[in-house]
Each structure stands twice: as C-alpha cells, then as structure tokens.
Amino acid sequence: MAVPIAILDCDLLLYGRGHRTLDRFKLEDVTDEYLVSMYGFPRQFIYYLVDLLGASLSRPTQRSRAISPETQILAALGFYTSGSFQTRMGDAIGISQASMSRCVANVTEALVERASQFIRFPEEEASVQSLKDDFYGLAGMPGVLGVIDCTHVAIKAPNAEDLSYVNRKGLHSLNCLMVCDARGALLSAETHWPGSLQDCTVLQQAALNSQFEAGLHKDGWLLGDSSFFLRTWLMTPLHIPETTAEYRYNMAHSATHSVIEQTFRTIRSRFRCLDGSKGTLQYSPEKSSHIILACCVLHNISLEHGLDVWSSPATGQMEQPEEEYEQMESLDSEACRIRRELLLTHFS
C-alpha cells in the first residue's frame, strides 16, 4: 500500500505528533548574547519585528500546528545572518529545515511588502536640509542628497541558456543599485537587475532615474563614481583634474562617496547570505532579489534601533566584478555647467 508522503507534515515526520513548535523556544528563556550569536539581533529588535510583521505571518493555514510569527522571524534571521539552513538552528527553535525554508519565504515577502516604509528619500524640507548638512559635514561637499553605486550579489544560474545574469567575471549575479545617506541608511534599493548590465545601464533603466528626471528630488544631487555619466542631478569625479579646485573637488567627492562602499561592506558582513561565503543564493533571480531587498529593509530598521551601521566587521565579502568602462565626460552641457559652478563656488 502506497503511503501518501507528499501530504505529510515535515515537522510531524521529524518530531512526532506530540511535538508543539509553538512551545519549543521562548525568547525570554535565552540571553541577548545567545540571540545575537544565533540570529544576529538582540531581543528587543526581534520583538519589534514580531509586532511589525505578526499580522502578515499569522495568515490562515491548513496545517495542524501553525508556526508562530516569532519562530518564523527567528528562522529567517538565522538564514539571513548565517547564509545557510543549519540543522542546529532548526533544532533550537523546533522546526525542520524544510519548514525553515518556508519561514524564510514568508518573512521575506512580509519585509518586501514594507520596503517603501523604511527605504525612502525624506520629503519634508527640514529633513532634506538635514540630509545635506550631514553629507557636508563629512568632507565639505554641498548639496548632496545621497551617494549612489551598484553592488553584485551572486545567485545560482537561472538556466543554461540565460546569459543575462552572467557578469564580467563570468559569475551569475544580480546587480543592485542603491543610494544611502551619510549614516549608511538606504534611501533607494533596486535589487533585481541582471548581472550582465553595467552600472550606467542599470541607472538609465531604473525607477530612480525617472524620479530625478521628473524633478521629484530638487535642489541637490547624488554623488556617483565614474561608472555613471554626469547629470544635472548626479555629480561624478573629474577624470583628469588639473587645477587645485579640481583636486579638492575630487578629494571631497571620493571621501563622501566612500560611505556607500562602507555600507555595502557592512550589509554583506551582517547578512552573510549575501556575501558569497556560504555559496550563491540558491533561488530564482526574483526570489533572490526579494531576499536582498528584505536584508536592506532590516539594515535600515537596525539603524533606527541604534544598531550602528559600522559596528560589524567587514569580513568574507563577495569579490565585486570590476566595471570596464570608458572614462567619458557627459555631453550634457547643463550638467557640466553645474559642476563648474560647484567648483568655482566651493572649491576654488
């Protein structure tokens, strides 16, 4: 007689009918040090996520024992911060690795649904001015609304025929376009672009480009490196500085832009599922993109809760493919005029 294994519950098979996942693990029974070592975050942060995501994670289920929001969040944080479905982690919270995978999917979608709540440019005039002041305090660069760059995250090959995700190092990846403020908080994150696209192409096709072209973010500019073209709203370094003012401008530009590079290092260090140390993300490009975005949301929430963006050591980061691009000055005459005026006004 055939046994209908497909309909059996994974946790039932692993632990037996008497097992109750809801009673397996209680946050109040362990120390903050244990939670940080296993799941990357302290108790109060996890409680906040339970309040934030609880309604989304308590959706109706046909399973006899729904996994609590608290347990789902712990499983997801464990994966995000370790990069693997470890047996000991599943044992600690009382669920199988198959159930951990479902928890990661649930929590990821719940975080992605709230991305616009936590990753956004400020709109109030006072907040925008504070943003500029913070950047100016770094190296004297005025008018900066954010620093922009791209970073690659390795993923498994979607299929043998699809080469759009193969980057310049021959690896499959997503090219993620991000903007951050002077503290390292993300203001924009587009995580779905194929790895074969150069940074300038990603920006040209991005929603961010449309927003700035439409004038939604006025009276300032982003700072980007030489992989981007100079725009009226995007200041790039001078290819060959000649005057003292040009050297000063480039030095201030470099010092300010370095914030996004440090932010990338911190995110990959905190969320080891992104750094490549445990292998590539074993998901489709769409699901991988959502996992990256979920980690970006958690990154910003952690900043709001006082978990210093620079507190984690930058180790094990994925080697980034170097862009191959021609150093070309923009043909945008208005953008060139704005940069010249910036040089004369602030760096001469």
Automatic annotation (TrEMBL):
Residues of the DDE Tnp4 domain: 148-300
Membrane-spanning ranges: none
Compartment(s) where it occurs, according to its Swiss-Prot or TrEMBL record: Cytoplasm; Nucleus
Keywords: Cytoplasm, Hydrolase, Metal-binding, Nuclease, Nucleus
Pfam short name (any one): DDE_Tnp_4
Gene Ontology molecular functions: hydrolase activity; metal ion binding; nuclease activity
Cofactor(s) the protein needs: a divalent metal cation
InterPro entries the record matches: HARBI1-like (IPR045249), HARBI1_animal (IPR026103), HARBI1_dom (IPR027806)
Principal location: cytoplasm
One cellular component term from this protein's GO annotations in UniProt: cytosol
Family of this protein: Belongs to the HARBI1 family.
Functional summary from the UniProt entry: Transposase-derived protein that may have nuclease activity. Does not have transposase activity.
Name of the protein in question: Putative nuclease HARBI1
Species: Gopherus evgoodei (Goodes thornscrub tortoise)
Phylogenetic lineage: Eukaryota, Metazoa, Chordata, Craniata, Vertebrata
Gene designation per UniProt: HARBI1
